[in-house]
Amino acid sequence: MRRSSSISAPGVFALAALLWAAQGPGTRVTYRVRVVQDGLLELARGSVSGPAGTDLRFALRDDTAEVEALFQIVPEGDTVLVSAEFFTRRRINRSRRGLGLWEQDSYRRSVRLAWGDTARVHLFGRPRRGAAPDAGLWVHVVLVRGFSGGEGRPAEELEVLDATMNIVLEAVVRPRRARVVMNLVRGDTVSGPRGYDLVPEAPARRVQLAMAGRTTTLEIGLTRPEPAKSARDRVLALDADVVCLRIATPEVAQPVGVVCGRLNDVARRLPLPGGDTLVATFAWPAGR
Amino acid sequence: MSDSHEHWLKQIDAELDGEMSLAERALLAKHLAACSHCSGARASQLEVRVALARSAGDPHARVVPRPTIRGRALAFWAVMALAVGVAGGWLAHGRWGGPGGSLEDSRAAIVVH
Q1: Does B105 touch chain A (CB under 8 A)?
Q2: Same domain, A86 and A61
Q3: Which has more confidence, A287 or B52?
Q4: Do both A184 and A121 map to the same domain?
Q5: Which of A46, A139, A200, B46 could make an SS bond with A121 (beta carbons 3.0 to 4.6 A apart)?
Q6: Which chain B residues are Cβ-neighbours of A67 within 8 angstroms?
Q7: Does a structural domain hold residue A1?
Q8: Contact flag B110-A84 (C-beta cutoff 8 Å)
Q9: A interface mutation test: which of B103, B107, B113 has the most A CBs within 10 A?
């Protein structure tokens, strides 16, 4: 006996399209953030958005306290697991010599919520018993996902309403590709720039740079940097947009050198064995 | 004065005269530890005997001092020391601060609304 299905073919197609849009590369994640004091005074508001996998780096500093956190999300169906790694410093007093004495702490928090729900982050702990439920300094974070509309770049927006505090919202995106522009330099002679879109950890590729009628062949490959030495830098992903370019010559098995840098169009120089200098700049790939 | 105290006063006399066995002295010591009246009587007896010995020309006789801190005085000073400690701690906390409650209470918390 054949069972009839209540889901039609167009329905299945629409469901598949919706799932693809929600989980696939076309998804864009937005963190809407409000920093509020005692439930009434809004200190800052802003948003950070980016492709799936974008994290939020939050920092709040004043003369007596610093809170830094990296919010990461893991979508699971209609819910999302939000985990945050906190680094806090609080000035507890002054030393006999008048210098500040600070208390430093680090820990991790996680919570599961539905898309569109609001997570309230009490930065210095929940209000004490007897205090108003909105007492203290807290941060509203609302997570929204939607179609990227072809926009792959992260975006940040922040309006600070209280100038006494330093508040930072940053999108943390680990590049899937990077634009690498290279020149060869020898004295006053500079080769024409050659640009390549490279994928981190992909196999090395062979490139040729021509200068003064002479061609130099190099093997280049993009890698992630070594993990940061300090726990704070590692957990807050301060090197998220750093890539390293490994350069080798076909004749020598060992790499000639490694150039690391952020995707910020700053030129990095590496002397080559033949007397030339390789100048490489790293940038985000052009928007599609 | 009860018969019981009469009995122990005789025992104290015998002990100071050196006429008690080790077991009897242990029994008396146990009683003296619990009975302030008898221990005071023993000290008085001892003072009298020392005074007599000194008047008789014994150069080695010494007066055994009575305890100068009594129970009420001890309680008073204990309360005073406690009060000073609490006040000092309060002032020190106000001046230099402190951990400010438990560590977990001071850490960030995420609540879903």
Answers
A1: yes
A2: yes
A3: B52
A4: no
A5: A139
A6: 108
A7: no
A8: yes
A9: B107
- Residue where a domain terminates, one of A119, A144, A172: A172
Got the DSSP string for A52-70?
TT-EEEEEEE-SSEEEEEE
Interface residue A71 vs chain B (CB under 8 A): no
**Residue A196 counted as domain residue:** yes
Is B109 within 8 Å of chain A by CB? yes
Per the prediction, chain A carries an average pLDDT of 87
Share of residues in chain A with pLDDT > 90 (%): 64
Name the packing angle between helices B36-55 and B22-34 (round to 10°).
120
Can you give the pTM of this predicted structure?
0.65
pLDDT tens digit sequence for B23-49:
999 999 999 998 888 989 998 888 888
pLDDT band at B54 (very low <50, low <70, confident <90, very high): confident
Helix (H) and strand (E) counts in chain B: 5, 1
Tokens at B26, concatenated: 């242990």
Mean per-residue pLDDT, A257-283:
93
Instruction: Give the model confidence (pLDDT) of A178-235 as tens digits.
Output: 999 999 999 899 999 999 999 999 999 999 999 988 899 999 999 999 999 888 898 8
Q: Which of A115, A142, A172 is the last residue of a domain?
A: A172
User: Same structural domain for residues A66 and A186?
Assistant: no
Residue A157 CA to chain centroid, in angstroms? 15
CB distance A179 to A195 below 8 Å: yes
Q: What backbone phi and psi angles, to 5 degrees, belong to A149?
A: 60, 30
Q: Which of A93, A105, A126 sits opposite B96 (nearest CB)?
A: A93
Same domain, A66 and A188: no
Kindly state whether A92 is in contact with chain B, defined as any CB-CB distance less than 8 angstroms.
yes
Q: Which domain holds residue A195?
A: 178-283
